[in-house]
Amino acid sequence: MRTLTAEWLATALDAPARVGASEGGRVHAPSSAAENPAWGDNRHMSEHEQALEGGNLNPGVVRVGDTVRRSAGSWTPAVHDLLQHLADRSYPAPRPLGIDDDGREVLTFIPGECVHPDNLDMLQTDSSMRRVGRLITEYHRAQTGYVSPPDALWRKDGQDPTGSTEVIAHNDLAPWNLISGPTGWVFIDWDLAAPGRRMWDLAWALHSFVGLWPDSPIAHDDTVRRIAAFCDGAAIDHSDRPRLLDVVVERTRHHSLMLRSRAREGDAEYQRLVDDGHAHAWEQGSNHVAANRDRWASALRA
Ligand SMILES: Nc1ncnc2c1ncn2[C@@H]1O[C@H](COP(=O)(O)OP(=O)(O)O)[C@@H](O)[C@H]1O
Ligand SMILES: [Mg+2]
Fold first, then answer.
1. What separation in Å is there between the alpha carbon of 77 and the centre of ligand 2?
2. Which region holds residue 266: left if phi is over 0, alpha if psi is between -120 and 50, else beta?
3. 284/271 same-domain check
4. Of 54, 73, 108, which residue constitutes the final position of a domain?
5. 147/181 same-domain check
6. DSSP assignments along 80-93, one per residue
7. Is residue 225 part of a domain?
8. CATH number at residue 285
9. Which of 2, 3, 139, 191 is deepest in the core (most CB within 10 A)?
10. Residue 23 lies in a domain
11. What pLDDT tens digit does each residue of the chain (302 aa) get?
């Protein structure tokens, strides 16, 4: 039986694109407290800026003291509203602190290490699969009752195309957006949040955390055990697990098609991702799950 290695995960998880990509027509949110008093005045925060590596398409992420500054967009007010709801329920996530003088969003800095790419050994065990599944379901529970503002603008890049409003999905729950630190595991990068099916969010996470790539060295039994552990942590009924695998196929295929279609529309960043093989990698990842779906589903039932 081959064991999962951090090296393999690093290779496998490095290949495909992280889902987040800037959308055309990034709109700057109000740039000062005067324009949006509810967001507070962060003008005192102009200390030393430290670039934060690791993002795929948000090159300007910086740390300033205990805060992070990121490009804002038309979606930022809705995302901050959601993050405030999570703060009120003590769900671990960056806290929204408003917009700085440069029009960037201000969030609390989460101390710790990003799991991808240097800490993938944290994902080797079944208990890590349970833990991440639980963290996601805790999020979906925490967002229950959240009512988004009627004029909320959510990004479309990762959005479930069915139009479901079952949850506000994070839409990029993956090792590249998970910080492991002294207070536990915390998901960051909430830019892609949008209404959708809970399964849509879980499917993306299942693929990226279990590592369902065609070149995976994980043996069949181990793959099934990791999927089961994730589902146990996420409290997914046994009867729903085969359907979740179907949504994994759908979710990853949708991402691949989205990358290609944005590139065709002339978006240079998406073209770069397609040229770098990201759309192809997600297509292969999707095909791999489709090819193994029945086998995994029957083993999950056993
Ligand atoms: N709130 C935060 N706390 C701590 N680190 C963060 C935070 N936000 C971003 N980072 C760091 O910056 C990197 C890139 O940020 P991210 O928001 O994921 O950008 P992108 O949208 O490009 O994926 C992350 O990998 C992480 O290391
Ligand atoms: Mg990210």
1. 18
2. left
3. yes
4. 108
5. yes
6. HHHHHHHHHTT-SS
7. yes
8. 3.90.1200
9. 191
10. no
11. 233 455 555 555 554 455 544 443 222 233 333 334 344 444 444 569 999 987 776 778 999 999 999 999 999 999 999 999 999 999 999 999 999 999 999 999 999 999 999 999 999 999 999 999 999 999 999 999 999 999 999 999 999 999 999 999 999 999 999 999 999 999 999 999 999 999 999 999 999 999 999 999 999 999 999 999 999 999 999 999 999 999 999 999 999 999 999 999 999 999 999 999 999 999 999 999 999 999 999 999 98
Atom 12 in ligand 1: residue holding the nearest Cα: 52
Q: Give the domain-ending residue among 66, 87, 108.
A: 108
Question: What domain count does the chain have?
Answer: 2
The single-letter code of the amino acid at 256 is S
- pLDDT recorded at residue 25: 29
CB 297 within 8 A of CB 242: yes
Residue 238 to residue 292: CA distance in whole angstroms: 18
Atom 21 of ligand 1: nearest residue by CA position: 58
Q: Please choose, from the candidates 224, 121, 115, the residue with its C-alpha nearest in 3D space to the C-alpha of residue 174.
A: 115
Whether 92 and 34 have beta carbons less than 8 Å apart is answered as no
pTM above 0.85, yes or no: yes
Residues 257 and 242 in one domain: yes
**CB of residue 211 inside a 6 A radius of ligand 1:** no
Would residue 215 count as lying in a domain?
A: yes
DSSP for residue 50: E
Find how far residue 37's CA is from the centre of its chain. 30
Where helices occur in 15-97 by DSSP H, the ranges are: 76-88
Q: State the residue range of the domain holding 69.
A: 37-108
Please choose from 18, 61, 105, 191 the residue to mutate so as to test ligand 1's pocket, defined by most ligand atoms within 8 A of CB.
Answer: 61
Closest ligand to the CA of 186 = 1
